[in-house]
Structure formats: C-alpha cells, structure tokens
Design goal:
Layout lengths: L4 H4 L5 E6 L6 H18 L3 E5 L5 H13 L5 E5 L6 H9 L3 E4 L17 H10 L4 E5 L12 H11 L2 E4 L10 H11 L4 E3 L8 H7 L2 E4 L14 H12 L1
Parallel strand pairs: 1-2, 1-8, 2-3, 3-4, 4-5, 5-6, 6-7, 7-8
Helix pairs in contact: 2-3
Length: 242
Amino acid sequence: MESCFYDVFPRKKVLIGMLHLAGNSPAEKIERALEERRIYEEEGLDGAIVEDYHGDIQDVISVLSLFRQNSSQMLTGVNVLRDPYLAFGLANKFGARFVQFDTIQASPSNSKNNHKFNEKLYFSLKNRYPDICIFGGVRFKYVPETGKSLGDDLCDGMYKADAVVTTGPGTGIETPTKKLRDFRAIMRNFPLIVGAGVNDKNIKEQINICDGAIIGSYIKGGDTLAPVQREKVRRLVDLVKG
C-alpha cells in the first residue's frame, strides 16, 4: 500500500512532541496541553501527539476539541492507549492528520496497551478513513513480539501502516541505534520513526537513519509528569534543523 506519510509531512526529518496529558485536574491537563503545543509550534516541531498516558479518553476529547477551536499550523496526532481503534474516529472528528498504534500486529496479550490486535477492525477503520496517516508500532516497547522474523514483522508493518514506529524496551529508554539500522536495511525508503529515548546525545545519529523522531521524556527532564522545558525542545530542533 502507498504511504501518505510524505503528503502529511512534506519536510524531511520530522520532529513530533508528545502531549502526555499530565495534570491534577481535567482543566490543568487541558491548560498544559495548550501550553505545550504552543511551545512545540514556536520552537519548530512538526507535530504533536495527544495521548491518554496520564489522562483518559475524555481528556483526549477535551484537548482535541480545544485544539480545533484554537487554530494552529501544528499537525495533530492521536494515540489512545486504552482503545487505539477510537483514534480514527477522533482524528476524523477533530481534524487530526495522523494516528499512532503502539502495535499493529497480533501478539500474546499485553496488559498495558493493545490486549489483542483486531486486524479486521483495524482494516475496516483504515479503509473508512483513508486520509488519516497511520504510525504503526513494530517491536514497540511493552508489546510482546510476534515470534516471527524481523523481515516478516516489517513487511507486515509496511503493508498495514504509513510509517513504522519502533522503540527500545521502555519509555525514556534509548532505542538502540543498531535496531534502527537493522530496520532501515530491510525497509529501505519506507518511512521509519524512532519513538522513544531520543535525546540531545543521540538525535543526530538516529535522525540520520530515520525519517522522524517522537520526543517526550527528554524534553520533560525524564519525567512525563513534568512540564515541557522549552530550552530542551529548542536544543533538539537546533541539532536537527539548525
């Protein structure tokens, strides 16, 4: 299937910031998400992902609704950890351009994210919303592996998604550069995103391998509950695009 990644992100070397929806109340979560998106846009990131990491589905809806009311040039993505299939409908309703699935492959049950990948439902939604770009996780953090070869996993991922996202073993933990090189050798020119552990020490090497990076823990001082630090966002942008 042809990828729409470069239609959505025409610039090379895409940087996307996470919105983890931290806060002590729904109002604070919304306020922080708006402020973090403003920082991301002012410092030159290409997009932001609204994720229910510290919030719930209602927080995601509230933030997306406010984003639509407060217009911005920043591209918005959606990742619903508790029920990823909801992301398609939310993206369509609120004008988000892309969604992320932490896994797009059948694997043993996983208590954190996708308990069981529903391929039939996934393709039904993908076909219903063809203009929504999909970031699909392959060998992603906290997701049990399929037991298949890397080549088989990546061929499957490239068939199902518009960009493949991969990580190291956990949030904030560096994705091994060798893993990214192994992915790239098989994927060739297909869009590849490094999805965790990006920092000012590794971003130049990793972004040379990948088409983009999702940044989160580093720009919050290693704590997803903490506010975004503008100077850290600027540092990464300068290293990639300066």
